Amino acid sequence: MLLLWLLLLLLLLVPLLAILWQQRSRGARPCWLISLQHRVAWGMLGWAAAWQQWRLDRSTLNVGQSQQQALMWCLKKAQGSCCLPREDTDMRTFRNHLPLTQTSHTQEQESEETLPSPASPQYHGDASLQATLLGLITLNKACPEALAPGSTACVTPTSPWPCSVPWLGHALGRVSPDGAKDPRTLLLEALISPGLRVLEARTAVELLDVFVGLEADGEELAEAIAAGILGTLLPKRAAELKEALEQGPRGLARRLWPKLQVVVTLDSGGQAEAVAALRVLWCQGLAFFSPAYAASGGVVALNLWPERPQGSYLLPPGVPFIELLPIKEGTQEEAASTLLLTDAQREKEYELVLTNHTSLTRCRLGDVVQVVGTYNQCPVVRFTCRLGQTLNVRGEVTDETVFSVALAQAVGQWPGAKLLDHVCVESRVLDSCEGSAPHYEVFVELRGLRNLSEENRDKLDNCLQEASAQYKSLRFRGSVGPAKVHLVRPGSFRVLREALAAFSSSSCRPPEMPRVIRLRHLAQLLQKRVIS
Question: 19, exposed or middle or buried, with CB in 10 Å at 0-12, 13-18, 19+?
Answer without folding.
Answer: exposed
